């Protein structure tokens, strides 16, 4: 805050007060174009062009060139879509093979998912796949997004390709869709189809322990092979087992939007 100039002849304010006043005048936060560039929107120059074109808002207001932001606090949007990534955060998509455990450290010396991705910055798995389950697993150091993805009230869809013993009847498929009784209660409505005999595509939005295996057990068709093929909007048919890649900016945005849409759909506070 600016202060009036001292009266002529008045004593100088103490030095520390002068410093505090000077510091308050210094711009705080990071330049918007720098934050945009760090989140994958292109070079700083092209990010400046985005801002100049009026396509970037900060907390709902069209941003001007030179604007500074705090990426941990300010809501930054480009063309109305949130730029949900803060500098320093990483988002990996891993194709987990069987035999690898979804923990940070295994007491039995087995390979963990954390060992399959870069060790710095340290990331952790978002949710969990059983040791015998294959397929897509997100890994990140963004605790906030991880929490929102795994929270059941956000209802992020998880799709699985499931090879089961025997051919499933239409009645049993209906049971999977309507909900099956498990020891921890009824499952929520799911999507279930049988693209070929004994191969099911099941989509759930809950995240209970060994849920798909238990659902299939409950209808009398034990799982022989379980592969997660989609997490919300994220899918990848060309990622080989044990391989990983970073999510693209578009994928990160789609994921943030899916979490927000899920929260509204299930209309429950977290
Ligand atoms: N459901 C299961 O039964 N296992 C998994 O790993 C994931 C979902």
Brief characterization of the structure:
This protein is an alpha+beta fold and 270 residues long.
Walk me through the structure.
26% of the residues lie in helices and 24% in strands. A hairpin with a 2-residue loop joins strand 11 and strand 12 (185-186). Helix 2 (32-38) packs across helix 3 (44-52). Strands 7, 8, 9, 10, 13, 14, 15 and 16 form an eight-stranded mixed beta sheet that branches. A four-stranded antiparallel beta sheet has the order 3-2-5-6. The mean pLDDT is 87. The chain starts with 14 loop residues before the first helix and ends with a helix. It has helices spanning 15-25, 32-38, 44-52, 143-150, 170-178, 211-218, 249-266, and strands at residues 30-31, 56-58, 61-62, 68-69, 76-78, 81-82, 91-96, 124-125, 134-140, 158-164, 181-182, 185-186, 191-196, 199-204, 223-231, 244-246. The longest helix is centred in the C-terminal third of the chain and has 18 residues, at 249-266. It has two domains: 15-82, Structural Genomics Hypothetical 15.5 Kd Protein In mrcA-pckA Intergenic Region, Chain A; 91-266, Pseudouridine synthase. It is built from seven helices and 16 strands. The protein is an alpha+beta fold. The chain binds uracil (URA). Uracil (URA) binds at residues 129-130, 133, 210-213, 226.
